[in-house]
Amino acid sequence: MIFNGDFFKVEYRRQLLASLSVTMISLAHGIGLGWLSPMLPKLQSASATPIDFTVNVDESSWIGALISVGGVIGNISFLLIFDRWGRKVAIYGLAFPHMCLWLLLYFAESVEYLYVARICGGLTGGGIFIVIPIFIGEIADPSIRGRLLSIFALSMNLGILFGFILSSYVHYHIIPLVVSPLPCLYLLAAIQFPDTPQFLLRKGLYTEALKSFLFYKNIACDKEAAIKAEIQRQFEDLKLLILHQQNQSSSITCSDFFNKKSLIAICSGVVLMLLNMFCGSFALVNYMSSIFAAIKTELHPDINTIIVGVVQVIGAYIATILVDRYGRKVLLLVSTSGMGVGLAAFGIYAFFAEETEVDLSLYSHWLPLLLMGFIIFIANVGILSVTVVVLVEILPSKIRSIASSFCLALLSLFAFIVLRIFPLSMHYFGLSATMWFCATICAFGLFYISLCLEETKGKSMDEN
Question: What is the reported pLDDT for 219?
Fold first, then answer.
């Protein structure tokens, strides 16, 4: 289990509490993501829309895609805040665009309100993928780092599930009132934790860095001398490592990026971002109700969506259990191969449902749900849950924030492309062709991970 005895060792408790506190914003962001899937068909229906206007297919694709525009802006903005003013300031800043998201949705009078709301949601999402993984990676002990980082993905999937449920059964204008207190609670929790020792050391704040180091190791001032001496030695080792990195160069230069090790790491990061989006998993989450409606399942599309949301959470939970036991690469290999098979099979079913007169009534109430559940489950075991873990660990520490921001900006760009074209592809080429394209991307990802990706389990976060 994720919360086994290791997690409750005294020296890990504050790392766990800090990680749970900051991932509350990813829970809130997940609700914003999950809101779209059941709500979009309602907004497209003149008889079911809960607001004073409806949206067409083209506007729907823009509503889906504009979150990625906000994601690119969030990647860049929060990178600057993150490196200049620290992890804590960036953590505080994540809450405010998310609050704007729900205000805009509540007061929406035209589709432009929805566009801006999704951009605000993207600002928080883009920042989350920069700030939270590096913050957790810097405070976490290597033996539990993978599981703590996986909580980030688990909390987002829980949020998506809650978003599915709220959007299906709660009135449009009640949802913002229910969710808005969550970012406020997140801010109150985040105040309790100091900035990371690594950032404070880079800023020359050695006394504050030592206090932070002791805080996250849960070492009190009155601990016995032997324990404090060992912790002091660990802190001095970290301090010397940070100073050595700074002394290598007064600033980051092109050579830091264009050496063999960095280029391989960045290339792997880019491929993982491409795989993460073009395998279709994020698009499936956003347009799931529309997909189930397209193939005319027996169950209501929103019920199917909620069931798959539960499976998604289970998959993310399984990833948190396995990531530190079996490593990152194994989970990615299992995930890409399983997704490829599942997407191909779903494409075959969609082909018969859309293009032929074959009677599928014996299968329509369970087979599409089973296939989609398998796809989302296996995606969360690896591709969705482990990608960010690997990205944070694979990049050299000196260029980690800039290179991860670059990769995550590409992730947002890829997300924009996928979310923009996915409903159009379904409309013009059919769901089956769309699924088969995603399966092909998974086959490419399986090939690359097998041959080129290194295992990062147990790797020090402070290595260059």
Answer: 74
**Phi, psi for 25 (deg, rounded to 5):** -70, -30
- pTM, two decimals, is 0.77
C-alpha 161 chain-centroid distance:
14
Residue type, 262: S
Q: Which residues contact 296 (CB under 8 A, 6 or more apart)?
A: 353, 364
- Which two three-digit tokens encode residue 56? 């067409």
| CA atoms lying within 13 Å on the CB side of residue 304 | 30
Regions of the chain where pLDDT drops below 50: none
Q: What pLDDT, on a 0 to 100 scale, did the predictor assign at position 102?
A: 94
Length of the chain, in residues:
464
DSSP state of 430: -
**CA atoms of 103 and 93, how far apart (whole Å):** 17
What digits encode the pLDDT tens for the residues 149-208? 778 878 888 898 899 889 888 999 999 999 999 999 999 988 888 888 888 888 888 888
d(CA 199, CA 303): 46
Nearest C-alpha neighbor of 81 from the set 187, 214, 195: 195
Nearest-angstrom CA–CA distance, 190 and 375: 35
Q: What is the gyration radius of the CA atoms in the chain, in angstroms?
A: 22
Query: Per the structure block, which two tokens stand in for 391?
Result: 């990205």
CA distance 96 to 187: 10
- State residue 464's pLDDT score: 52
Letter string b/e over residues 212-243, b meaning 16 or more CB atoms within 10 A of that residue's CB: bbbbbbbbeeeeeeeeeeebeeebeebbebbe
Distances (CA, A) of 63 to 6, 55, 119, 272, 351: 43, 9, 9, 25, 27
Six-digit token pair at 417? Answer: 């492309």
Q: Which residues contact 17 (CB under 8 A, 6 or more apart)?
A: 193
Q: Which amino acid is at 250?
A: S
The amino acid sitting at 171 is H
pLDDT of residue 362: 74
Please choose, from the candidates 125, 116, 118, the residue with its C-alpha nearest in 3D space to the C-alpha of residue 30.
125
| DSSP state at residue 195 | P
pLDDT tens per residue, range 305-323: 788 888 888 887 887 777 7
Q: 112 is written with which tokens?
A: 């432009």
In the structure encoding, which two tokens stand for residue 191, read together? Answer: 């105040």
Closest among 354, 36, 335, 71 to 168, alpha carbons compared: 36
pLDDT of residue 295: 77
Residue type, position 433, single letter: A
Tokens of 244: 């050595």
What is the C-alpha separation between 129 and 387, in angstroms, rounded?
A: 11
Residues in CB range of 29: below 8 A, 6 or more apart: 98, 121, 124, 125, 128, 156, 159
